Amino acid sequence: MVPDDKTLEDLAAQIVERMTASSQMLATAESCTGGWVSKLITDIAGSSVVLDRGFVTYSNDAKQEMLGVPAEILDAYGAVSAETVVAMALGAIERSRADIALAISGIAGPGGGSDEKPVGTVFIAWADRSDAKVERALFDGDRESIRRQAAGRALQGILESLG
What we know:
The chain is of the alpha/beta class. It is built from 6 helices and 5 strands, in the order αβαβαααβββα. It has one domain: Maf protein (Alpha-Beta Complex), CATH 3.90.950.20.
């Protein structure tokens, strides 16, 4: 199901409320969502105490330069892979004051898909300073729908990681 604006706003508000209450900070590392998760968080008043920083790393060079993703990972697995988003999340947490980092990379379409990684394939990772969790999703719809679903799932995953 594609989350509507109200659903995304509610998820972001819950994150800001819970992270504020627990004095935790967030960093994001986004590729296919182009900063949408950070935008959703910063739409909420008071988010400045929660969002430390957001990295929009659309190109492989940006993933390497800004987040320290090893070229070997990108060469071996590609930008849209579990290995890459985990490296992105760990890079974001290492380069921030965040307690939790989120990373997203995917194929939003309409082109760019393959048999192995069709349009709608998105990898999302959530990391803290001791561990990382990664998930592969296959979302349906057009570019907007895929990106919206990825942002929604990313927000839900942050809430789940907060316990």
